[in-house]
Description:
The protein is α/β, with parallel strands linked by helices. It is about 40% helix and about 15% strand.
Amino acid sequence: MLLIFEAHPVPYHAPVFRALQQDFDVPVHVIYGSDFSLTGYLDKGFATRLSWDQSLLEGYSSQFLSRVSEGGAKNYDEVRPWGMTPAADAHPVSAVLSIGYYARYDLSGIGYAIRRGLPLLFRGETNDETHARGPIYNLMRTLYLRRLYARCSGMLYIGQRSKEHFQRYGAPAEKLFFSPYCIDENHFEASPLAAAQNRKEVRKSLGVSEDTKVILFSGKLSKKKGVDLLAAAIRSLPEETKKQLHLLLVGDGPLREQLESQCSSSPAISASFVGFQNQDTLASYYQAADLLVLPSRERETWGVVINEALLNGLPCIVSDRVGCHLDLVKPGVTGEVCPANNVAGLSLAIQSLLVRLPSASISAECREQAGRYSVSAAAEGIAKAWRSLPNH
């Protein structure tokens, strides 16, 4: 049995666990620290209460160390590994999959594998950024990661930057397996007729005509995401181009009031703020838009909204700080890449992409590229790593 430790159920991992067991015959058991993401919790970044609106427990074996209804952890910071060892020992474990190396819960799962002498697989977000805590901390982190990866029997890279990270830390080729970062494509599927109807209805609700180009931002309204650069970038576009644009912001966060003020100040920018949207309504906003922009200032290990947008045929503009740009955004094909924290570069990328839209070929390229980073591909990579272990 492959044992997985995760703090709480998330929609970007649970479908992979399901496919791993159902489609690739790998026996999976997940020990979750809490069920708060199913019952609802306050997300500090979105500044709103969230709960996932899709089934995250079907198709594989799982259990919870604590439940909110029984006084358990109510958010990520409260999750503790209490009871992890006896819960894990109750199962015929032959290997452990870790999905992180930083949080206390993840570290406890890694510690369990080491104490029990079990093969350890690692699939998680990686980051090579130096930390503000200083050179001593960064040196200790480097030494720790070298020891951790040396102990791993397999490292699953989610994209090109992830692979380069493992290679920098000395990972041999035979221990590297591709398991891409992905979304549940079934949750975003819609027939061409349904997608067209969604586009029409959302645009009508926004007061946007069909010949208007809608620029979408989806995510936390924060400085890290660079969303505050959008107003200035749009204002620097040619006057005729600006008249044809509408900025659609999906999400919430600390910059919302500032962004509303930026858009309404003279000369005003046509814009809509629709707040946080859960998975059941999010796809319709992608279908209503013409392109997505993620101009992050700070390093993002991936940027899952790019998967979502491309799957809906939406080309993307990202900054070079967005980790997935090497994998998903092909300049001139599925979008554009611009320098981070650079209004002029962002404006130029928007203008460059707008002149190529609308385009059925671009939409097809976007869907094809997103399809390579699927739940099935992610599960297949883990299955290959699992079967590479002794006695599998």
